Automatic annotation (TrEMBL):
Keywords: Apoplast, Disulfide bond, Manganese, Metal-binding, Secreted, Signal
Signal peptide residues on this chain, from the entry's feature table: 1-22
GO molecular function: manganese ion binding
Species assigned in the record: Ensete ventricosum (Abyssinian banana)
Name of the molecule in the record: Cupin type-1 domain-containing protein
Length: 190
């Protein structure tokens, strides 16, 4: 009994005296500018030789310019990620400018590899579940910041109604509480 007590006390004392450290490790290098010409396969993009890095690798011109919103949904997303700014490689960030025509929509979507924060610079937007809709009578502009250098985007309607192989019509009709003819009309658009 005394041996058990001493063993338990020793274990508790060892746990209490153990230093514990938690946190992200320090970066192995200061920067890793993406080398878009490399044939090396890595998770992300291979690093450019630091001697070949230029100021242009950290610059993108154009977020200040409105984009054409004359399309089916009335919006245009200008994504600025590692493909446009190679200096973002390994930093885990990207951003986007979203232009909206009056009553324009950024359709419901998800970002499978990122979370997003959106700031409305001009106009007014609905921003529920995960879409944005310009409910005003003038243009709107928003900037989004995402927690990934390659956030991806999956548009819900396209994924559901344009999936290959298709989701059965009766399942879609029941899920969206519409008739199968309506499902066929929607699927024809994808």
């Amino acid at each position: 009994m005394a041996a058990s007590y001493i063993l338990l006390l020793s274990a508790l004392l060892a746990l209490a005296a153990s230093p514990a450290m938690a946190g992200d490790p320090s970066a192995l290098q200061d920067l890793c500018v993406a080398d878009n010409t490399s044939d090396v396969f890595v998770n992300g993009l291979a690093c450019k030789d630091p001697k070949l890095v230029k100021a242009e690798d950290f610059f993108f011109s154009g977020l200040d310019k409105p984009r054409n919103t004359t399309n089916k949904v009335g919006s245009n997303v200008t994504l600025v990620n590692v493909n446009r700014i190679p200096g973002l490689n390994t930093l885990g960030i990207s951003m986007a400018r979203v232009d909206f025509a009056p009553y324009g929509l950024n359709p419901p979507h998800t970002h499978p590899r990122a979370t997003e924060i959106l700031t409305v610079l001009e106009g007014s937007l609905y921003g529920l579940i995960h879409f944005q809709f310009n409910h005003g009578t003038r243009n709107a502009v928003a900037l989004a910041a995402l927690s990934s250098q390659n956030p991806g985007a999956i548009t819900i309607a396209s994924a559901v109604f344009g999936s290959k192989p298709p989701i059965s019509d009766d399942v879609l009709a029941k899920a969206f509480q519409v008739d199968e003819m309506t499902v066929h009309r929607i699927q024809a658009q994808f």
